[in-house]
Design goal:
CATH architecture: 2-Layer Sandwich
Distance between the termini: 38 Å
Number of domains: 1
Strand order of the largest sheet: 3-2-1-4-5-6
Radius of gyration: 14 Å
Number of helices: 4
Number of strands: 6
Structural class: alpha+beta
CATH class: Alpha Beta
CATH superfamily: YdfO-like
Helix content: 25-40%
Order of helices and strands: HHEEEHHEEE
Largest sheet: 6 strands, antiparallel
Length: 135
Amino acid sequence: MNADIIHSLAKATLNGSMPFPQIVGELIGEGVEYYHVDYVTYTFTFYSNAGATVTAPLLFQNLPSVSQDFDATALKAAILDSQQHGQKFDVFCERAMRAGVSGYFAFLRGQRVVYFGRQGNQHTEWFLGAEPNNT
């Protein structure tokens, strides 16, 4: 896992200079198994399948405090806007924080994102087309 490449991919996420699916593909190519976005410490932490980590700052200005209460409906609306309308990452972060998301783990091999709030609430969002069949 090349820290310089990971930092450049984190920066591309922040400034929107690269499509998100391409960023995910490159992260996987660098050996990233999952990453954590922490809205309390304003950091990304990337974890490799070999146990290495790389941390990068989440450098958006004027983000709100994380709401005390978790609003899964508002979170799902923010996720949908990102998936269907290309919502910018800073807007998604603001909406997620207002919905009570204190952070999330994106499991690239597991093809899901687990969002969590300050009181232990959580929501799992599967990558498009990856949700398991519950039959």
